[in-house]
Write a structure and sequence with these properties.
eight-stranded parallel beta barrel; alpha/beta; TIM Barrel; 8 strands; 180 residues
Length: 180
Amino acid sequence: MLWLFTDAARGRDPLAAAAGLPRGLAGVVFRHDGVAGRAELGRALALVCRARRLTLTVAGDARLAVALGAGVHLRGGAWPGLAGRGLLARRARTSSAHTIKEARRARRAGAVVFVSPAFATASHPGASGLGPIRWARLTRAAQTAAGAGACALGGIDGRSVRRLPGRLLAGAGAIGALGG
């Protein structure tokens, strides 16, 4: 599955980017933390996602996720406040994972796990990416008993994603490569 991660600092118009995703075959992780008008942008994005049958998860704000009828994005497998757990128990969940501990916590939470950063990325200037071998190691830690892999995030484009082991790759998330 293909996932757009919105980013107020690096991304472009998230509404246009979401409208360009393949209908019914993609998702959006709405971040835009600390941005004035976040709730209004979230409502507009939720309409685009519903019209295009895209999964929508919201990072950092369980109440906004509930208000938008969306799922929740966990950071490092951690819930954004205890209140959100009950309200979002049956909704879609995504999560970032940068360590084995976070990957396992995210999987226990029932989230689609984004092992990050797969490669060097503009989101973290100067930091190195995991690369294919370390990405695979973290992904194995996030696997379910059924053997489901994880999604890649960080430095992902059409070329870099092909460097990752396909048997472990459940999907990919991107910011710049998708215009988000």
